[in-house]
Design a protein that fits this description.
- This protein is mainly alpha-helical and about 425 residues long.
- The protein has one domain: Hydantoin permease (Orthogonal Bundle).
- It has 21 helices and no strands.
- Helix 2 runs parallel beside helix 12, helix 5 packs antiparallel against helix 6 and helix 18 runs parallel beside helix 21.
- The radius of gyration is 21 Å and the shape is globular.
- The protein starts with a helix and ends in a 9-residue tail after the last helix.
- The relative contact order is 0.20.
């Protein structure tokens, strides 16, 4: 018998779907326009390579994010009307699908929601001139208000998330344009002080795709809201490829220009450039960046809600999501979430082999969803294990000569997951279809 999360799943009907510019594109663009994506992107990159190569790296990273990590899950979601967690029962089995990608995706989004809530509460209390220390009354109140409000909007579905993102995306876009034009005169004077083009190129690709990997797998949840292949294609090209180039390229160039204009500028973070402007402009921009964090917060809640509602169908979506969000808020207001970014980045990179295995399964099945497979699909789990080892190589104490070429690890992990799944499937480790 099929597990409840599969037997109770119903495909999203055509009447509930919408064009790419009303859901997929603005929602994905909102993720990349989040300051967490590009704030530290200039570190270790613009000092090693010229802006032309850096922009080329962003373009390559955007295309790989679209083609390798988003396209297959989104296409399967569009064709079947099912979310990632049901679709994943083919690649990982009806039993194996509980853990991966099922609950793993939901728990990971709860973690990222905690990180976002922490910084939102910090910005809000700082802007109001209140005690911005985690645990303070003002910080706790701000965190609770932000967390539950964003979770409610996310639970209401992709239509609400996209509606918010469509308007709020213009706020960070306008701000990064303002910063760019204020620093553009320094671009001709930008110099490469520590030449290492490959390191800069590989690091930028890793930064972009490592950040995007889980959102790419969640493409199934966006695809199930797409009407046809055209919506899948254009939603990804605009919301991912174009968004990466714009949201990554403008801040990167701004930091390069600012460093040329202000050689004594401390650090290479984008928020450092904003702070250097001083006065009302800087304070206002920090407040607006907090407002611009709404779409990615809603995105996390939406994906977490899909995970919990699918994997635990007996519990109402609102209840399970709010339970997860309560944990996230607790991590945020106590300050624990501030130290979880590195951990969640590593776990997020584990979605490289998940996407690779799903792509192999899709192609081996004749570019269609093969349906749920019984028990645990060891081809999928073997592919994930091998790909995960490859994906964490940059975090291991390896010789410098090895580490130099260990990036972009998330791309290597995708390729590993793809190849290992295909090999194990050919060896007969795919279980039979569930009845």
């Amino acid at each position: 018998m099929l597990p409840e999360y599969i037997s109770r799943a119903a495909p999203n009907p055509a009447a509930n779907r919408a064009p790419w510019y009303a859901n997929t594109a603005p929602s994905y663009a909102g993720i990349f326009l989040w300051i967490a994506f590009y704030n530290a992107m200039a570190g270790g990159t613009i000092d090693r390579a010229g802006l032309g190569l850096c922009l080329a790296a962003l373009a390559v990273a955007g295309f790989l994010s679209y083609q390798l990590f988003y396209y297959v899950p989104a296409t399967l979601g569009m064709k079947t009307g099912f979310p990632l967690y049901v679709i994943g029962s083919s690649t990982f089995g009806t039993t194996g699908g509980y853990a991966m990608p099922g609950l793993l995706m939901g728990l990971l989004q709860v973690g990222w929601f905690a990180v976002g809530t922490f910084f939102a509460a910090k910005f809000m209390t700082s802007a109001a001139g209140l005690d911005a220390a985690p645990g303070s009354a003002a910080f706790v109140i701000a965190g609770i208000a932000w967390g539950y409000t964003m979770a409610y909007v996310g639970v209401k579905g992709i239509g609400y998330v996209a509606r918010i993102a469509t308007f709020l995306n213009f706020i960070p876009l306008l701000m990064i344009l303002v910063v760019f034009f204020r620093t553009a005169e320094g671009l001709p004077r930008h110099t490469v002080t520590n030449p290492d083009p490959w390191a800069a190129f590989a690091l930028l690709v890793q930064m972009v795709i490592g950040f995007f990997a889980t959102a790419g797998a969640a493409g199934a949840d966006f695809g199930m809201n797409s009407r046809d292949a055209r919506d899948v294609r254009w939603g990804g090209l605009v919301g991912i490829v174009l968004a990466v180039i714009v949201a990554g390229g403008l801040p990167l160039a701004s930091v390069a220009g600012a460093k040329a204009l202000m050689p004594d500028l401390a650090g290479t973070n984008f928020d450092t450039v904003i702070a250097s402007m001083g006065g009302t402009l800087a304070a206002t921009m920090f407040i607006l960046f907090t407002v611009a964090s709404i779409p990615p917060a809603c995105f996390c809640a939406f994906i977490a809600g899909n995970s919990f509602a699918t994997m635990i169908p007996g519990v109402p979506r609102m209840s399970s999501t709010m339970a997860g969000v309560t944990v996230a808020i607790a991590l945020a207001v106590t300050g624990v979430a501030e130290n979880l970014i590195g951990f969640f980045t590593i776990v997020g990179a584990s979605f490289g082999p998940i996407c690779g295995a799903m792509a192999a399964d899709y192609l081996l099945s004749g570019r269609r969803w093969a349906g749920p497979r019984e028990g645990i699909n060891w081809a999928g789990y073997g592919a994930w294990a091998a790909g995960f080892v490859v994906g964490i190589l940059p975090f291991l104490p390896l010789p410098d000569g090895v580490l130099r070429y260990a990036q972009p690890a998330v791309v290597y992990s995708f390729v590993t997951g793809f190849v290992v799944y295909a090999a194990l499937a050919r060896a007969g480790l795919e279980p039979r279809a569930a009845s």
